[in-house]
Structures are given as structure tokens and as C-alpha cells.
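I hope you will forgive my troubling you with a question about protein structure. You will find the record immediately after this paragraph.
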Amino acid sequence: MIKNKLLYLSMVIIFLSLISTSVYAQEDMVEIDNSVFENPRRTPSIFRHDEHNEKAEIEECNACHHIYKDGRIIEDESSEDQQCSDCHKLKA
């Protein structure tokens, strides 16, 4: 009985340790490389996505993850799950 309780307690401690480690892990850096684009409009950059948005006071994802139609940004549309090169021309 005591062995089972110790085993259970050990498993709970390990589980909580794994969860807390992932919560406090460093956020992955995002790299935007513009060298592949024919006519880049932004400089290449490496940044922490959430921290950058907070400091720049960017609340709408489509400020960067934009979708255009007839030369205008479509409101409430986002290209978050697409590569920039899906829409922007690449160098030959």
C-alpha cells in the first residue's frame, strides 16, 4: 500500500515538473528572411513573436499576416498558416 502511494506521488511530481518546465521554457524565436523575395518591403528579422507584438502594440494578426484583394487588406482575414512566399513573388 505504501509502495503504491509513493509510486503515485512520484508520478505526480514528475508530471508536474514536466508541465512547469514547458510553461517556463523560452519562447521560440521567429525568423523572417526576406532574401528570397523579388521585391522585399521589410528588412529580415529575428524576434520573439508575442513579445514583439506586445511592445509594438499589435493586436490584430492581419497587420502582418495580411490578405489582400484588389489592392486592399481584407478585414478579419489572416494568412497565419501560410508561408509569405505563397503570395509574395520569389526571386527567379
